[in-house]
Design a protein that fits this description.
This protein has one domain. The chain is 44% helix and 17% strand. The protein contains four helices and six strands. Helix 1 packs across helix 3 and helix 3 packs antiparallel against helix 4. The longest helix is centred in the first third of the chain and has 34 residues.
């Protein structure tokens, strides 16, 4: 069973700016991968040969490789942030498409309409979405420090940023599989 915890961070102004820009990189990766997915799927639908159509259909691996290549050539400024931000956004987009197509298939089989919550993935807006990005478990580490007054203070080491203070100690139960950093209410 996977359990999640929400822990607030004490960010400096520079750290908050870095986190917001990393979240913007994740949003950019999502939007570019979605545009590419739509273009590739339209080209695949136009193809008359079934074998070519299947070969042309966009996959998560193809979209992720395309993002990695684009990040290196066209978007060198994204190297200032962790690679997880954009790559995980593309992986999340692939999962969203999987859930969408699975819901359409199930609804057709059961003879019902598709549920609204399983709509096709949409472009993300800066204003309408929560700024967030993901870190994989090999990209960050969490440590508890005990000060002289015996109150624990935890920190998280984020790649290309450094130590970030957390508001509470992280329980040592099980391993941490990943982290999703979301910026809400200014923290």
């Amino acid at each position: 069973m996977n359990l999640g915890r929400r822990i607030a961070m004490d960010l400096t102004v520079a750290q908050e700016r870095h986190m917001r820009r990393a979240a913007g990189t994740a949003r950019l990766a999502w939007n570019q991968a979605l545009a590419e997915h739509r273009a590739l799927s339209a080209a695949a639908r136009a193809e008359s040969d079934e074998a070519k159509r299947k070969a042309m259909w966009p996959t998560t691996a193809r979209l992720r490789a395309s993002w990695t290549e684009r990040r290196k050539t066209d978007l060198p400024w994204t190297s200032a942030f962790t690679k997880c931000a954009g790559a995980q956004a593309v992986i999340d987009l692939g999962g969203a498409f999987e859930r969408f197509f699975e819901e359409r298939r199930d609804a057709k089989r059961e003879g019902r309409e598709t549920r609204r919550s399983f709509g096709a993935p949409r472009f993300k807006s800066r204003r309408r979405t929560t700024s967030a990005f993901a870190l994989w478990n090999d990209q960050f580490s969490v440590a508890d420090h005990y000060r002289f007054d015996a109150r624990p203070r935890a920190t998280m080491r984020v790649p290309l940023l450094g130590e970030v203070r957390l508001r509470e100690a992280v329980p040592g139960i099980g391993g941490i599989l990943g982290c999703r950093v979301s910026l809400r209410r200014g923290r």
